[in-house]
Write a structure and sequence with these properties.
This protein is α/β, with parallel strands linked by helices and 583 residues long. The chain contains 13 helices and 31 strands. The strands form seven sheets. It has a nine-stranded parallel β-sheet. 47% of the residues are buried.
Length: 583
C-alpha cells in the first residue's frame, strides 16, 4: 500500500472474536451518535425533482398509495445556479411553506450540500468566506479554484477548526426554512476538468500541492485529502446539532475517513442499475459495518441507468433491511418510484417497506447497541460464526443483528438460490419450518419472496404497520419467540431529542431458554428513567405443538401455523412465562 502524502500509519486492533474487534475500533475511533428514529425509515430521492409541485406530488403519492416513507431528499435542482444554501426562486418560490406543509404530512426534508462554493462576489457564502480566509490556497499562495456544478468554485479548508465553525454556521440557512438534515455530496472532493456548463471532462480533485491546515500545522492536500469529507461532515453535524433546537440531526456523506461514523451516515456513491451492483452492495455494507461505520446503504435500484421492475424489487428486498434505506436515481434515467413499475412491483415494495417499519423496535435497538459499542447493524455470517470457516467467503448473505438472516436474490430470472445455514436451528420466516445447520439448501425464492431465516432462540420485538416512523406510539409491542436459547435487549427513548443523554431512556432485557419439553421466557424489569406510553404486550410463540401458560387461558392457538398468541401486562415489572412445547 502507498500514499500520496508520504506517511501511512497502521493501527492493529486485536480481539478473540469479530465482536470484540468491532468494540476495539469503536474505542479507538469513536461511535456513531444515536440517529433520530425517523432517519431509520425509508428515504426517497431523485436528481430531477426540480420543482415544488413535483415534491408535493411525490409526497402525495407515497401517502395515498400507503407506501411507508419518512424522508424526501432535495438534490442540486433546488439551488439557484448550484449555489449552496440557496433556492431557485422560480421553481421553489416559498421553500419555508413547502417544507412546513411536508412536515404536516410527516415527511422530513434533507438537502444536498456540495463543498464547491461558486466564485461570485455577489454570493454571500463566497464573499464572507473570502473575508474570513476559509478557502484552500494553492501552492502559489492564491485561493485554489476548480470547476464543479456551479462552474468556477472554491473549497473550504475543513482541517482548520475556525473554518469548520464557519461552515457549521452556514447550516442555519437551511434550519431557518425547516430542513431536518444535510446530505454532503461530491466531497472527495471532486474537481471537473471543464466547467459543468461546457461539459465536465475528466474528473479529478484538488491539486495535491495545495496548502491546508491550521497555523503551525500547514501541510499539503496530498496528506489530508482523505480527511476532507470527514471535516465537512463534522462541521455539518455540529452546526445542525447546535441550531435544531434539541432535535437530533441527520447527516449523510459520500466520502469520509476512519471515524466518519461520529458525524454522519454513509452511502456508497453513484452505483448503476446493474445486477452486479446489487450483488456488490452486500459486501460493501458488510465491510463498512466491520470497519466501524454502521449507518450505511446504497441507492436502491441504482443511481444511473434504468432498473427493470425485477431488479428494483430484488434491490428493495435487500434495501428494506439495510441500515440506511434510500431509493435514488439520476435525472437522465427513468423514474424509480415503486409505482412506476406497475401494481405488482408496487405491492411487493410496499410489503417489504411495511416489514421494515414493523421491525423498527428491533432495528432501533440495534442502532442503540451500535452507538454504545461500535458494533455493526448489518453483519456477515462470520461475525457470529467465526469458528465456522465455511462462513468466511460468504458475501451474499447478511445478518440483521444477531437473529435475522437474509439471502437476497441478485440474478435475473432466478426463483431459487443456494443458502448456507450455520450450525444450530433456523426457522423459515415465511413458514416457521425448523431447519438445522450446518447445511446447504436450495431456497425457493419467487419474485415476492426474499429468503429470510430466524435463528433459534430469537426474540424479535416489532410493532404495528406504519406510514412513517412516529405515526403513533408503539402499541401493541409484539415479541416473536422462536424456541431455543437466546437474549435480546429492547431499547426505547423519545426517538428525536438528546434527552437520552441525561438518562431519559429505558431498556428491557428478555431471555429465552429451552429444555426438552418446555420454553421459559423471562421478561426483565424495565430499567431507566424513560416511561413508554401505556400499551398492550403481545407474545407470539412460533412452532409450538402444545402450550400451557398459567393465567392465560384466553390465549389463541393457530393449529395450522402452530402459533401461540397471548397478551400479558406490560407494566415494566419482571415476569416469567412457561410454555409446554410438546413433541
Amino acid at each position: 500500500m502507498g500514499v500520496e502524502g508520504g506517511e501511512l500509519d497502521y493501527y492493529v486492533i486485536y480481539g478473540p472474536t469479530p465482536e470484540r474487534v468491532s468494540e476495539g475500533i469503536g474505542t479507538l475511533l469513536g461511535n456513531m451518535p444515536l440517529p433520530p428514529r425517523w432517519a431509520l425509515g425509508y428515504h426517497h430521492s431523485r436528481w430531477g425533482h426540480a420543482t415544488e409541485s413535483m415534491m408535493r406530488e411525490l409526497a402525495g403519492e407515497f401517502r395515498t398509495r400507503n407506501i411507508p416513507c419518512d424522508v424526501i431528499h432535495l438534490d442540486i435542482d433546488h439551488m439557484d445556479g448550484y449555489r449552496v444554501f440557496t433556492w431557485d426562486q422560480q421553481s421553489f418560490p416559498n421553500p419555508q411553506k413547502l417544507i412546513s406543509d411536508l412536515h404536516q404530512e410527516s415527511f422530513h426534508i434533507v438537502s444536498i450540500v456540495d463543498p464547491g462554493v461558486k466564485t461570485d462576489p455577489a454570493f454571500q457564502v463566497y464573499r464572507t468566506g473570502l473575508e474570513r480566509d476559509v478557502f484552500i490556497h494553492g501552492a502559489n499562495g492564491e485561493v485554489f479554484h476548480g470547476y464543479v456544478w456551479p462552474d468556477e468554485s472554491v473549497y473550504a479548508d475543513y482541517t482548520r477548526p475556525e473554518v469548520r465553525e464557519w461552515w457549521a454556521d452556514m447550516q442555519k440557512a437551511h434550519v431557518d426554512v425547516g430542513i431536518d438534515g444535510t446530505w454532503n455530496d461530491m466531497n472527495e472532493p471532486v474537481v471537473f476538468e471543464l466547467p459543468f456548463s461546457k461539459g465536465i471532462g475528466k474528473v479529478g480533485t484538488i491539486a495535491l500541492d495545495a496548502v491546508q491546515g491550521p497555523e503551525g500545522e500547514r501541510t499539503t492536500h496530498a496528506e489530508v485529502h482523505n480527511l476532507f469529507g470527514s471535516g465537512m461532515a463534522r462541521a455539518s453535524y455540529e452546526g445542525l446539532r447546535r441550531d435544531l433546537g434539541g432535535e437530533r440531526p441527520f447527516v449523510l456523506t459520500r466520502s469520509g475517513f476512519a471515524g466518519i461514523q461520529r458525524w454522519s451516515a454513509c452511502w456508497m456513491g453513484d452505483n448503476h442499475s446493474w445486477w452486479e451492483h446489487l450483488e456488490m452492495a452486500m459486501p460493501q455494507l458488510l465491510n463498512m459495518g466491520m470497519s466501524g461505520v454502521p449507518f450505511v446503504g446504497t441507492d436502491i435500484g441504482g443511481f444511473t441507468g434504468n432498473a427493470s421492475g425485477e431488479l428494483f424489487v430484488r434491490w428493495m428486498q435487500f434495501g428494506a433491511l439495510s441500515p440506511f434505506s434510500r431509493g435514488h436515481s439520476e435525472i437522465r434515467t427513468e423514474r424509480h418510484e415503486p409505482w412506476v413499475f406497475g401494481p405488482h412491483v408496487e405491492a411487493i415494495c410496499r410489503e417489504y417497506l411495511q416489514l421494515r417499519y414493523r421491525l423498527l423496535p428491533y432495528l432501533y435497538s440495534l442502532f442503540w447497541e451500535a452507538a454504545q459499542r461500535g458494533i455493526p447493524v448489518l453483519r456477515p455470517l462470520l461475525y457470529h460464526f467465526a469458528d465456522d470457516p465455511a462462513t468466511y467467503p460468504i458475501h451474499d448473505q447478511v445478518l440483521l443483528g444477531p437473529h435475522l438472516m437474509a439471502a437476497p436474490v441478485y440474478h435475473p430470472g432466478r426463483e431459487h438460490r443456494y443458502v448456507y445455514l450455520p450450525a444450530g436451528g433456523w426457522y423459515d420466516w415465511w413458514t416457521d419450518e425448523l431447519l438445522t445447520g450446518p447445511a446447504h439448501l436450495l431456497a425457493h425464492a419467487p419474485l415476492e419472496r426474499l429468503p429470510l431465516y430466524v435463528r433459534a432462540g430469537a426474540i424479535i420485538p416489532s410493532g404495528p404497520d406504519l406510514h412513517y416512523a412516529d405515526e403513533h406510539p408503539l402499541d401493541p409491542l409484539m415479541l416473536d419467540l422462536y424456541p431455543g436459547n437466546g437474549t435480546f435487549t429492547l431499547y426505547e427513548d423519545d426517538g428525536h431529542t438528546y434527552a437520552y443523554e441525561q438518562g431519559q431512556f429505558a431498556t428491557t432485557s428478555y431471555t429465552l431458554q429451552r429444555t426438552a419439553d418446555e420454553l421459559v421466557f423471562e421478561i426483565g424489569g424495565r430499567e431507566g428513567a424513560y416511561i413508554p406510553p401505556v400499551r398492550q404486550l403481545q407474545i407470539r410463540v412460533h412452532a409450538v405443538h402444545e402450550y400451557a401458560a398459567e393465567g392465560h387461558t384466553s390465549a389463541n392457538y393457530d393449529t395450522t401455523r402452530r402459533l401461540l398468541t397471548l397478551a400479558v401486562a406490560d407494566d415494566g415489572q419482571a415476569q416469567t412465562l412457561r410454555f409446554k412445547l410438546g413433541s
